[in-house]
């Protein structure tokens, strides 16, 4: 069993039983109790709310932790093998889908991470609202884009930092839906004149999931770019687009061309 699958199974067992022992987990998953404690440590580090405590030995006598003077972090790992674990239901990671039916590594990751689960619940709220406001033609496109987004999110299993990849996928898609679905007040548009002779219209959204700007050029579909780190000024990145504003002018990279733009008076 892969480690990711094993961690997921531990969470599911704890969800179902609330209170269980390391021995039960080890027997259920055909692993050693030492592996159980290591996996529980990793789950706690990732934000899964698990508490551990010493239980009783086979004869019914209380068993004490062997941690001695170690820190509490290490003490958890050294709880004797009759220890018990408890998941606190009020803080469990609960996404919008049924974790018992989670399919694939990324859905299982979401089920084990409260931050990702919260983003998934938000998606389950925002997407239907955007869909309800769409025309019949727009709804078809929106559904196709959402299916493509889910497929892209699930490709995060290939990432070196899976959680960050999934988090970013949710945040950018939520921003798109918030803007497209009219959930945010439309900002004042700022027109720019560019050195290549083409006009640029910008609309900055600061209350979306991620700060973003909608860029529109003559004859082109609007493009969303998301705020990105910058040494100075305000920089936004989107698919094949970059807008970097600094000291009264902006450098615009659009597809394979670059130009300088200035706000129109």
Structural account:
With 265 residues, this protein is α+β, with helices and mostly antiparallel strands. 41% of the residues lie in helices and 22% in strands. The chain has eight helices and eleven strands. The chain has helices at residues 3-17, 22-29, 33-45, 72-77, 105-112, 114-133, 136-154, 162-180, and strands at residues 19-21, 50-53, 84-87, 190-194, 199-205, 212-217, 223-228, 234-238, 241-246, 249-254, 257-263. The strands form two sheets. An eight-stranded antiparallel beta barrel has the order 4-5-6-7-8-9-10-11. A three-stranded antiparallel β-sheet has the order 1-3-2. α2 packs across α3 (33-45) and α6 (114-133) packs parallel to α8 (162-180). The chain is elongated and about 70 Å long. 25% of the residues are buried.
Could you tell me the mean pLDDT?
Answer: 82
- What structural category arises from helix and sheet content? alpha+beta
Radius of gyration: 25 Å
SSE order, one letter for each helix or strand: HEHHEHEHHHHEEEEEEEE
Q: Quick one: biggest sheet?
A: 8 strands, antiparallel, barrel
The end-to-end distance, rounded to whole angstroms, is 64 Å
| Count of individual beta strands | 11
Q: Strand order within the widest sheet?
A: 4-5-6-7-8-9-10-11
Percent of sequence in beta strands: 15-25%
The residue fraction in helices comes out at 40-55%
